[in-house]
Amino acid sequence: MDKSGNYFLLLKTNLKVNLIGTYECTLDAKGRMLLPSGIKKQLDSLLQDGFVLKRSVFQPCLELHPMCEWNQIMKKINSLNRFVKKNNDFIRQFTAGLKNVDIDNSGRLQISKDLIQFAKLNKNMVVVASVNIIEIWDKELYEKAVDVNDEDFANLAEDVMGNMSEDELP
């Protein structure tokens, strides 16, 4: 039974995480951030399994992966042939700086200094639910990343989603 009194069945191997929201928060002098309550509530059933915190591949931000989602990524990574140099190089870069992390009883997440430096995190941060992961951004860098004009976004949306059939569209 969950906190609201509802019964639920959590099949962690088939769990699909769909997170929603953008929240501002702060980083303290010890490298801890208090997870916004809106995100923490969505993660309640996943807190006991832990998370993986890593550098983003494409952006200067961090990604917080619930362990069930991370395990799905690792299945794909483990299928790569390690006797192919390109695969080995990719795995090394992709896993550089990985950290197993937990959310403490106060709802705080500890971020290591190397990851703080990578994402250029300062005191003011933005936590963004990005479907099945959480992105952690420096506030100024996030605002620059999402500051695109409407026409550019419309073109991007058409390029990414325009070829999908009605059944595939969200």
List keywords for this structure.
two-stranded antiparallel sheet; disordered N terminus; alpha+beta; 22% strand
Give an overview in words.
This protein has 170 residues and is an alpha+beta fold. 32% of the residues lie in helices and 22% in strands. The chain has six helices and eight strands, in the order ββαββααββαββαα. The protein has helices at residues 37-43, 67-78, 85-95, 113-118, 139-145, 150-161; strands spanning 22-26, 32-34, 51-55, 62-66, 99-101, 108-110, 124-130, 133-138. The strands form two sheets. Strands 1-7-8-4-3-5 form a six-stranded antiparallel sheet. Strands 2-6 form a two-stranded antiparallel sheet. A hairpin with a 6-residue loop joins strand 3 and strand 4. The longest helix has 12 residues, at 67-78. The radius of gyration is 18 Å and the shape is globular. It starts with 21 loop residues before the first strand and ends in a 9-residue tail after the last helix.
Topology as a string of helices (H) and strands (E): EEHEEHHEEHEEHH
> Oligomer, anyone?
single chain
Radius of gyration: 18 Å
End-to-end separation in angstroms reads 30 Å
Helical percentage: 25-40%
Strand segment count: 8
* Global structural class: alpha+beta
Mean pLDDT: 86
Largest sheet, spatial ordering of strands: 1-7-8-4-3-5
Largest sheet: 6 strands, antiparallel
Shape: globular
* SS strand fraction: 15-25%
Pick out the low-confidence regions: 1-14
Discrete helix count:
6
Helices and strands in order, then pairings?
Elements: E1 22-26, E2 32-34, H1 37-43, E3 51-55, E4 62-66, H2 67-78, H3 85-95, E5 99-101, E6 108-110, H4 113-118, E7 124-130, E8 133-138, H5 139-145, H6 150-161
Antiparallel strand pairs: 1-7, 2-6, 3-4, 3-5, 4-8, 7-8
